[in-house]
Amino acid sequence: MTSTTLASALPTEYRTRLMSLARDVSFDVGTRLFEEGRHADRFWIIKTGTVALDLHVPGRRAAVIESLGHGELVGWSWHFPPYVWHLGAEATSPVRAYEFDADAVRKLCEEDPEFGRAVAVWVGKVVAHRLHSARIRLLDLYAPYGSGTK
User: Fold this and answer.
1) How many whole angstroms separate alpha carbon 23 and alpha carbon 3?
2) 0.90 surpassed by pTM
């Protein structure tokens, strides 16, 4: 597990509060969870399966940036205005996940600033990790000599 998984990112009390808003969902292989540029109104935490994050590259097939699994957050764009997806996501195996309504979570964050701060730090760490992963992956795909090692 990385430091961006829910289990390691939020204290038990805050995880419990967040999970009170969760809804169980499942996705078949090949299901698109979201598309780059569309409205971000929800997010997921994976229970089982894998989700590939991809980036639209004009004139080419979408570049897979990262593969996510158990305990990982799928989607962070819901947390920052204008609430538009920055990447795309697709189930690469059957997925079971917890789904969260973004408006409900943002409301909870506003009502309890300490909870909101903890969620913001968690989501911020996820954003930083995904940015780094995207940079490395795009260098691997398109730089003359690749990125080499991290």
Assistant:
1) 23
2) no
